[in-house]
Design goal:
Blueprint: E1 5-6, E2 11-16, E3 22-28, E4 35-37, H1 38-48, E5 65-69, E6 71-73, E7 79-82, E8 87-92, H2 114-121, H3 137-147, E9 155-163, E10 166-167, H4 175-178, H5 192-205, E11 212-219, H6 233-242, E12 247-252, H7 263-266, E13 270-272, E14 278-280, E15 288-289, E16 292-293, E17 298-304, E18 314-317, E19 323-326, H8 340-363
Antiparallel strand pairs: 1-2, 2-3, 3-8, 4-7, 5-8, 6-7, 9-10, 9-11, 11-17, 12-17, 13-14, 15-16, 18-19
């Protein structure tokens, strides 16, 4: 199986399967001298970790990360410093229940990659999907935690802005509430918690699932990152966000709603600031014009489809072409979009870090 790597200068290769002994990643191209702590990497993994509320899969994985290479200890004994060589990180799988998938070993689950994997490779790992499992995304979050350190002053944050038919009230947006212990949904709207909870409880009790929309924002990104033709910053952001499991749509800035605007509404007008730099009066472009960052916040949203592993019987076929019904047992997210928030942040951070290093290599400026 090829194509397990993304990025150009900040290159991330992930490896491992959902029900294998471990998963991990190798970050190649991380500059030397980047200082971080293991606790900072672990904190991001803990945000994505399963089993933290009744609204996510109850698979119990501590997701404890180990760093195997590419760093040296700092003077304080806690800080790690990158050496410029590949940084390898490993996360053990400790709570696999492969027997949960025994009944579907020969059956294709509708909405999953079962059939397409079989069609391409002539075999598939039915134990949780193998490489196609969202379990792989833990390694991206680990890489993203390191990527956040590459661009000085960059802050990457994400939030769940819609779940199924329910949406947040943007007038209530509070970034500080997103990671509140009383907030199981990564929502920026405190009043939406009760609404989402009641809604998802009903979905879960019916043995079904629902999708979500996630918004990720990167602030402190300098102007000039990207390129106007085949290395557009928004092009790579969209591609990397689309690579996340279950993502079916991505938009930048106003996105599809821009098609409903007039030209004078959509144009982000500018005025000169006190420092001579442009001050934008709106950000419909989502911080990117002509494939190059403007210095404004980079805003992207992505749509996550409903979890395909549900208890409701669905019609399908098996490997022999016989018609069957499929019920997926085991532990699954009723809304996989909830845990997609830190994954989206990680992919945005990795993409911008890669473009930052490309820009520095090409122009000598940052």
């Amino acid at each position: 199986m090829s194509h397990n790597t993304f990025g150009h200068l900040f290159r991330v290769t992930t490896w491992g399967e959902s029900h294998g002994p471990a998963i991990g990643c190798v970050v190649d191209g991380c500059p030397p001298g980047i200082r971080f702590t293991l606790a900072e990497i672990q904190a991001e993994l803990d945000r994505r970790r399963p089993g933290q509320s009744r609204f996510v899969t109850q698979r119990r994985e501590p997701d404890e990360v180990r760093i195997l290479s590419g760093v040296m200890p700092g003077e304080d004994g806690e800080t790690l410093v990158t050496t410029g060589t590949p940084v390898s990180m490993l996360i053990e799988n400790v709570d696999q229940r492969s027997k949960d998938y025994g009944e579907i070993a020969e059956r294709y689950r509708p909405g999953h990659a079962d059939y397409t994997y079989d069609a391409k490779y002539g075999l598939r790992d039915y134990r949780g999907g193998g490489r196609s499992s969202a379990r792989e995304t833990a390694t991206r979050v680990a890489a993203g935690a390191l990527a956040r350190k590459i661009v000085p002053g960059m802050v990457v944050r994400g939030a769940l802005v819609a779940m199924g038919e329910k949406e947040i009230d943007r007038a209530n947006w509070d970034w500080d509430f997103v990671n509140d212990p009383e907030n199981p949904f990564f929502t920026p709207d405190r009043q939406s918690v009760a609404v989402f909870a009641d809604y998802l409880d009903g979905i879960r009790k019916e043995g079904s699932s629902v999708g979500a929309v996630i918004e990720v924002v990167a602030e402190g990104v300098p102007a000039g990152l990207g390129a106007p033709i085949y290395a557009k910053l928004d092009q790579d952001i969209c591609g990397n966000l689309m690579s996340i499991n279950a993502v079916k749509g991505v938009e930048i800035g106003a996105g599809f709603s821009a098609a409903r605007l007039r030209g004078e509404e959509n144009a982000d007008e500018m005025r000169a600031g006190n420092d001579g730099q442009p001050v934008f009066m709106s950000n419909h472009a989502g911080g990117i014009l002509g494939g190059i960052s403007t210095g404004q916040p980079i805003v992207a949203r992505f749509a996550v489809k409903p979890t395909s592993s549900i208890l409701t019987p669905r019609r399908s076929i098996d490997r022999s072409g016989r018609e069957v019904e499929v019920v997926t047992k085991g532990r699954h997210d009723p809304c996989v979009g909830i845990r997609a928030v830190p994954i989206g942040e990680a992919m945005l951070a990795c993409t911008i870090a890669d473009h930052y290093l490309r820009h520095r290599g090409q122009t000598g400026r940052v």
